[in-house]
Write a structure and sequence with these properties.
Strand content: 5-15%
Bound molecules: 6-deoxy-beta-L-fructofuranose, manganese (II) ion
Number of helices: 15
Number of strands: 13
Largest sheet: 6 strands, parallel
Low-confidence stretches: none
């Protein structure tokens, strides 16, 4: 503890000299909150294999218990994002009781028309909203209306629509017809949205479709959001971009269009790898937060993004990975708050490329760990959440309490 206080005092003094109030920054960090994906609390896998750990959650209640622990240690994750039917509640009342008991709320709901469910009449093999069959499209719309009903019951205010729809071979699907069918179905879903809800369209370049994905990029997503209406916005999953895409530029474009609805934070090296945020390209993550902090400072119209995580933890302990992720996001946000915006704008106006870049790097290269640790401490959280989790023995305790899944049982997620 003493070393933390010394580190924080040292940093506060250095920040003071740069015109920043450490207490002001702590208050700023407290404004950053991120929602946790229920589907990331059990070990993820690939088509090649899955290596589950012990003490993993199998029920929505157990996933919420783990989420509550992440929130207790970080004080920055007070909501979960449900995925239907993986989190289909048997008893809404019990879910609401658990949420009250655990101090959790509910962020955007997630639909699922990328898998066929055992009791489903028609298959989504050839798509959902883009399916040539009107009956399949109707079934998919009905599913979204059901997701909205569950969301209303738990107090969510948004639905994220990611569609796996696409084709694997040229000629398989009408490239314009499929998009028109998706827009028509989304119009039906948008029409059913409660007045204070938002609909987020989530783009993705490929997988599971390997030739053409209907909502393939931010342009397609923006076209849909602009057509649907004011409460339709675009969700940016960081991993849903082809290699070397400038994602912070995509974010700036969507902010400029008043259509940035939210994020699925994660990181990736190649494809939609769903790795822990900040693990591969921390500078890119900082540059995204720089665009977000700028937009907040400039009070850009319609700027109120939902921050959510979407990851698959194949080898790290899922709770440790989420604790690390929240810390990485808090750090990226804190660094972005350190940017000397007036000086940056002056260098940009003067065309001083070197000094403009250095102004950004000064913020990025500041070690803000004592600042985010202090922000957590002041709210009763942990200085180092991963170490606190390890010392808590929580995983061992859950390994005793939670029976291992029946062998061969597919996990209720990817
Ligand atoms: C698709 C996606 C989508 C979720 C799923 C779990 O790749 O990012 O947001 O529904 O992962
Ligand atoms: Mn996603």
């Amino acid at each position: 503890m003493r070393s933390h206080q010394r580190d924080f005092a040292d940093l506060a003094e250095r920040l003071e000299r740069r015109g920043h109030s450490a207490d002001g920054l702590v208050a700023e960090i407290h404004r950053f909150e991120v929602a946790l994906p229920t589907w990331a609390f059990a070990t993820g896998g690939t088509r090649f294999g899955r290596f589950p750990g012990t003490g993993e959650p199998h029920t929505l209640r157990e996933k919420m218990e783990d989420a509550a622990l992440v929130n207790r240690l970080t004080r920055a994750a007070p909501r979960v994002s449900l995925h239907i039917p993986w989190d289909e509640p048997r008893d809404i009342g019990a879910v609401l009781d658990d949420a009250r008991r655990l101090g959790l709320g509910f962020d955007a709901m997630n639909s699922n028309t990328f898998q066929d469910q055992p009791d489903q009449a028609l298959s989504y093999k050839l798509g959902s909203f883009s399916n040539p069959s009107a009956a399949v499209r109707r079934q998919a719309v009905e599913h979204h209306l059901r997701v909205i009903e569950i969301g209303k019951a738990v107090g969510s205010k948004a639905i994220t629509v990611w569609l796996a729809d696409g084709s694997n071979f040229p000629g398989q699907m009408s490239l314009r017809g499929s998009f028109d069918r998706v827009r028509e179905c989304l119009e039906d879903v948008y029409a059913a949205l409660p007045g204070d809800w938002r609909l987020f369209t989530e783009h993705k370049p490929y997988e599971p479709a390997f030739y053409a994905t209907v909502v393939q990029d931010w342009g397609s997503s923006l076209l849909l959001a602009q057509t649907l209406g004011e409460r339709a916005q675009c969700l940016v999953d960081l991993g849903h971009h082809l290699p070397n895409t400038n994602v912070e530029l995509v974010v700036a474009r969507l902010i400029g269009a008043g259509k940035l609805g939210g994020f699925h934070f994660n990181d990736s090296k190649y494809g939609d790898d769903d790795l822990t945020a900040g693990s591969i390209r921390p500078y890119a993550l900082f540059l995204i937060f720089h665009e977000l902090v700028l937009a907040g400072r400039e009070r850009v119209a319609g700027f109120d993004p939902s921050y959510m995580i979407d990851q698959s933890h194949n080898i790290k302990d899922p709770i440790e990975a989420l604790l690390q992720t929240v810390d990485q996001l808090q750090q990226a946000y804190a660094k972005a708050c350190l940017v000397d915006h007036d000086t940056l704008a002056a260098h940009q106006a003067a065309g001083d490329v070197m000094m403009a870049e250095r102004t950004l790097k000064d913020a990025y290269e500041t070690d803000v760990r004592p600042l985010v640790a202090e922000a957590r401490r002041r709210r009763g959280g942990a200085l180092d959440p991963v170490l606190a989790f390890r010392e808590s023995g929580y995983r061992a305790q859950k390994s005793r309490e939670r029976p291992p899944p029946p062998t061969g049982a597919a996990p209720t997620h990817l």
